[in-house]
Amino acid sequence: MTTNQTHNLGPLQQIPHGEGRVFQVAANEIVVFHDRSGEVYATQPKCPHANGPLADGLMGRGTIVCPLHERTYDLTSGHSTNAECSIRVYPVKLNERAEIILSLHE
After folding, report:
1. 48 closest CA partner among 37, 64, 36, 26
2. Of 90, 50, 87, 88, residue with least CA distance to 70
3. Which of 2, 12, 37, 71 has the smallest number of CB atoms closer than 10 Å to its CB?
């Protein structure tokens, strides 16, 4: 049986604008990105192509570029804009106190 659980990852201010941070959530590593407009996104931590650390990639306009081989992924859908692979994305939002709330299917 799959259940949807929410996790409070703390205040958004812990992630600078335009960067991502890796969080351990239950048994999963998740990267949360904070773009320059204040939006948040959550994805798997590694690029499926060569395990590049996505948190170290270049972020902009709702995309992340893997630092190893410049694979670009849409942070909303997980689809690549220049490769055949895709990444897993997770539902994430901010609550009224600007804390990061992540949903996981466990």
Report:
1. 64
2. 50
3. 2
Distance from C-alpha of 59 to C-alpha of 7, rounded to nearest angstrom: 24
Q: At 73, is the secondary structure helix, strand, or coil?
A: strand
The whole-model pTM stands at 0.92
End-to-end Cα, the chain, rounded Å: 8
For residues 92 and 40, give the distance between their C-alpha atoms in angstroms, rounded to a whole number.
7
Q: Which helix (H) or strand (E) holds 72?
A: strand 72-74
- How far apart CA 101 and CA 81 sit, in angstroms, is 27
Model confidence pLDDT, tens digit, residues 65-74: 999 999 999 9
